[in-house]
Structures are given as C-alpha cells and as structure tokens.
C-alpha cells in the first residue's frame, strides 16, 4: 500500500477533556479518534458505542478523522480474528473513512491490563510472528497500518536487538508502516540505560513514518512518565526538527489527556491548560509549515490531500 499524502497537524480527540477543551474551534487539519472510546462492547451487536456514531460522523463532516487503536490486542497470542482490533476496530476505521490506521506495538490479551508497559520482545522469532499478524491485519483494514513504538520501564526479557532495529526489520517484513511517538522515544531515553534517542531516529526507516505523536509527561517516584499532562518538552521539539528535516510524514498529532494513565497524573483543565494546548498546536503547525515548504508541498497540495479523505 502507498504512503498517504501529507495532511497536516491535528489533535487527538480525547473524550477525557471534552468537558472543558473546545476541540471543534481549533485550527487543525485533522483529528485523531481513539477507536476504543467509540466502539461498541464486544458482547454486543454494535460496532459503535450507542450515541457515538452520530457525534463521530458529525465531527468527520468538518475535519478528516484518523483512526487510532490502543487496545486492539493484535500482537497477543490468541487468534487474531478474536482480537478487538478485528472484531471492532477494522469496521470503525472504515466507517470513519480513515486514510490509515495506527496501533500499538504492545502485548495484549483479553484482560486489557498489561498493555501499557509490555512492549513486544525484540527478538528474531518475534519479528516473524508480529510481522505475520501485522500483514494479515493490514489486509483486513484495507488501508495502511502503522505501528506505534511503546514507552516502557523495562524491556521484555529475551530480546536480541535494539527496539529501533526490531521495528525497522518488522515493518520491512510486514509491508506496514510506523507511527513514531517521539515522546515515547524521549521517555525511554530518560528511563532506560543505553537507550539513545538519536540512534533510534538514525535506525528506523524514516520514509515509512506515516504519523508522529507529540506529548508531554511528568516525573513520579523516580521515573519519567508518558502521561500527556504537560507541554511538549524541548528535546521532543528538537527530535521533531530532526525528523522533519529528513522526511515529511502524513500527519503530526498532539496528545493531551486527563487522569487515565495513573492516579498521580495531573488532571488537566482550565484556562492555563487550554493556552498550553493552543501554544503547542501553533508551534507544531509552524514546524510543519516550514517542513512542508522545504519538501516542496504547497498549501494547495495540502488542501487537496484533505479533500481526498
């Protein structure tokens, strides 16, 4: 499958902050939709959660929507056909006319409890197993599938290579793509001995990056966490500049969240946090516009790409 045309800069449409953040009035090129937030229960006949279809389609009438799968559990060890990704996310991504879909390169099972800190094992046998499932899943979606790199506090035992090498070899074998979360790379470089953010960017195939995630985090109990509860740190902006100097992805998405990840997460809300989000959005759009010009993408070309979604 071909790489989708560049669209621009957007926000993750996060239900946790809908009560105070005016998403619909933001100057974005697209919104990223969390499929788990809109999907019907697995023990129900519904693809959409009751009440979510009308709201999601109304949002899509105004702005292109990008599907993002968190809890698809496609890289667990149960049958792929039984995973939430196949049972719900495939139909949802197609229903919102997403130009591509992103998932998480995590282990997952029916408990949904072990995902956030369980990266896949970076080993040769897992390249074969994960790539096989990724290729089959991309065929079911019928659109490009991009894998998001994980933030984690220790690697899964038994690894035989660096994470970046694993991701590069896996997407090459599967024919799939990358969803590069720069804050996850930064978080791992802070917490894990020997994890080099610059080496990560030098190792993965940047031409296969469809989308970039930007976010902020917080320190707690001696570790830096990807909690999406603060402004994007300077090292992450610097990494964005490095990537955009070499390639132009199809989109850049900013993430902000409530208190979903941990009870100690600072709960966003109020005028200061709204200003923080707007400030990061403007900075990301400035970086994107400059990069788009360097890569020869005109304003008209971006508008045409949005119209095709």
From TrEMBL:
Biological classification of the source: Bacteria, Pseudomonadati, Pseudomonadota, Alphaproteobacteria, Geminicoccales
Protein's name according to its UniProt entry: DUF692 domain-containing protein
Gene3D superfamilies: Divalent-metal-dependent TIM barrel enzymes (3.20.20.150)
InterPro entries: MbnB/TglH/ChrH (IPR007801), Xyl_isomerase-like_sf (IPR036237)
UniProt organism field: Tistrella bauzanensis
Pfam families cross-referenced by the UniProt entry: MbnB_TglH_ChrH
Superkingdom in the source lineage: Bacteria
């Amino acid at each position: 499958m071909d790489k989708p045309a560049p669209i621009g800069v957007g926000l993750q449409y996060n239900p946790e902050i809908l009560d105070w953040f005016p998403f619909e009035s933001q100057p974005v090129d697209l919104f990223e939709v969390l499929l788990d937030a809109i999907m019907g229960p697995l023990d129900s006949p519904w693809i959409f959660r009751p009440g979510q279809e009308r709201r999601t389609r109304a949002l899509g009438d105004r702005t292109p929507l990008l599907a993002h799968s968190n809890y698809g559990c496609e890289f667990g060890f149960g049958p792929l056909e039984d995973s939430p990704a196949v049972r719900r996310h495939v139909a949802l991504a197609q229903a919102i006319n997403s130009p591509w879909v992103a998932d998480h390169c995590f282990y997952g099972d029916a408990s949904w409890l072990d995902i956030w800190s369980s990266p896949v094992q970076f080993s040769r046998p897992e390249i074969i197993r994960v790539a096989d499932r990724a290729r089959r899943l991309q065929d079911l979606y019928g659109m490009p599938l991009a894998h998001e790199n994980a933030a984690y506090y220790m690697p899964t035992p038994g690894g035989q290579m660096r994470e970046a090498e694993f991701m590069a070899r896996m997407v090459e074998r599967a024919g799939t793509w990358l969803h590069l979360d720069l804050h996850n790379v930064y978080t791992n470089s802070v917490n894990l001995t020997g994890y080099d953010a610059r080496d990560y960017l030098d190792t993965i195939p940047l031409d296969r990056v469809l989308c970039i995630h930007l976010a902020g985090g917080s320190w707690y109990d001696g570790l830096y966490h990807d909690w999406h509860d603060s402004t994007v740190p300077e090292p992450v902006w610097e990494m964005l500049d490095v990537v955009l100097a070499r390639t132009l992805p199809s989109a850049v998405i900013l993430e902000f969240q409530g208190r979903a990840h941990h009870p100690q997460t600072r709960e966003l809300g109020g005028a200061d946090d709204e200003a923080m989000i707007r400030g990061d959005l403007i900075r990301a759009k400035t970086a994107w516009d400059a990069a788009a010009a360097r890569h020869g993408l005109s304003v008209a070309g971006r508008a045409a790409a949005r119209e095709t979604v």
